[in-house]
Amino acid sequence: DVKVTQSSRYLVKRTGEKVFLECVQDMDHENMFWYRQDPGLGLRLIYFSYDVKMKEKGDIPEGYSVSREKKERFSLILESASTNQTSMYLCASSPRQSLDTQYFGPGTRLTVL
Amino acid sequence: GEDVEQSLFLSVREGDSSVINCTYTDSSSTYLYWYKQEPGAGLQLLTYIFSNMDMKQDQRLTVLLNKKDKHLSLRIADTQTGDSAIYFCAETYGGATNKLIFGTGTLLAVQP
């Protein structure tokens, strides 16, 4: 079974703090993704990575950066958290060519005060 | 830009059929997917349909695809309280299989 884990289920941070969200997958997948989920907006892609040290912007990259130093780990970084980044953050992974598409972690609910 | 739309809410009684609808815009999508998100959990792939198919049945689930109207639907027969969740449709972006565009999600509430 594919397992995608995220470092925290719930996180509370203050405006201006630097925030790290970690995601680890154990199936040697090449592709990894970070989404945010907001009511009425569905999932929106922030960043994705097709390989180690490789990253591409998704639809809403502003205010975020990512790091992929190892194949199994994809980190999302909020350099200076703001209240409008309060959201549910979902990580996903998939093999390079995938009929079964993406496997998701349980999500991190981030609140920025 | 690409857009995938769903109604936000559907309420049904236990034992009835549920039909969740989705419209998409990218006619080059190779696959279309249905995901389920239970409360407090991530998304779980329910089923998918290849773009050259009209229908796919998998136990209680039936997926219908109308390519002309770019309309996708998910029918759940004999809906149970355990089916209560948010359902997302998704399409492959630009024909690629590893980047997806998700719909807004439909909250299905099953009344006992």
Largest sheet of chain A: 7 strands, mixed
Count the E strands of chain A. Answer: 11
Q: Give helix % range of chain A.
A: under 10%
Low-confidence stretches of chain B: none
Shape of chain A: globular
Mean pLDDT of chain A: 92
Number of strands of chain B: 11
The best one-word shape of chain B is globular
Terminal CA distance of chain A reads 37 Å
Question: Helix proportion of residues of chain B, in percent?
Answer: under 10%
Order of helices and strands of chain B: EEEEEEEEEEE
- If helices are DSSP runs of H or I spanning 4 or more residues, what is the number of helices of chain B? 0
Termini separation of chain B comes to 40 Å
Radius of gyration of chain B, whole Å: 13 Å
Structural class of chain A: mainly beta
Largest sheet of chain B: 6 strands, mixed
Largest interface: A-B, 26 and 23 residues
List the defining traits of the structure above:
heterodimer; A: 113 residues; 7-stranded mixed sheet; 4-stranded antiparallel sheet; 11 strands; B: mainly beta; 6-stranded mixed sheet; globular
